[in-house]
Amino acid sequence: MILNERCLRNEHLQLVARQMATAARTAPKGKGWDILEIIVVDGNEIVSLSEKMKEIASIKNLNFFIRDAENILLAEAILIIGTRNQNLGLNCGYCGFATCAEKDSHANVTCALNVTDVGIAIGSATATAADWRVDSRVMFSVGLAAKELGWLNGCNAVYGIPISASAKNPFFDRVSTKPLLNT
3-class secondary structure for 63-104? Predict the structure, then answer.
């Protein structure tokens, strides 16, 4: 039997995306509470995500969303990780409010420890991608689009991690959307 790597690539990347999801799930969490939501998207869902990112770019005047929207079309799969906002009852003040009750009176404020949990999960997921020698990049633009599409209901802080296996990482050395400075 002869198997060409190009024919195996998609199957391999789907496996890696699942491994990344497991790594994110098993990452340490504040008070041991599992409030993360994790999904893997591919195929037509990546196209839908890209279209939503372009829509956000035009509404919010965020040009880099257009760059990212084009960029994710080069991904074989995208891991999306978000956290539900859960009061941990620590009254630690990391969110900027003295108590959790005071923070909860401001519906749009996410617990700092919930966001930390997402960060640790992202680190575990991207380390797994690196272990499998798969290219990845953390993108908040992808997460915002997934959030607006309602893919992770009840989640506030959401991030996306597109993955690829190609001769060069397509998620770095991208064309900048920043104007050139006269130097």
Answer: HHHHHHHHHHHHCCEEEEEEEECCCCCCCCCCCCCCCHHHHH
Query: Please, are residues 97 and 126 in contact by the beta-carbon 8 Å criterion?
Result: no
Domains for the chain: give ranges and CATH numbers. 26-62+74-164 (3.40.109.10)
CB 103 within 8 A of CB 109: yes
Q: Which two tokens stand for residue 19?
A: 């491994």
Answer left, alpha or beta for residue 44, where phi above 0 means left and psi between -120 and 50 means alpha: alpha
Tens-digit pLDDT profile for residues 2-61: 989 888 999 999 999 999 999 999 999 988 999 999 999 999 999 999 999 999 999 999
Question: Could you give the CA distance from residue 36 to residue 7 in angstroms, rounded to a whole number?
Answer: 33
Q: What's the predicted TM-score (pTM) here?
A: 0.90
Which tens digits make up the pLDDT trace of 128-183? 999 999 999 999 999 999 999 999 988 989 999 999 998 888 888 766 665 555 54
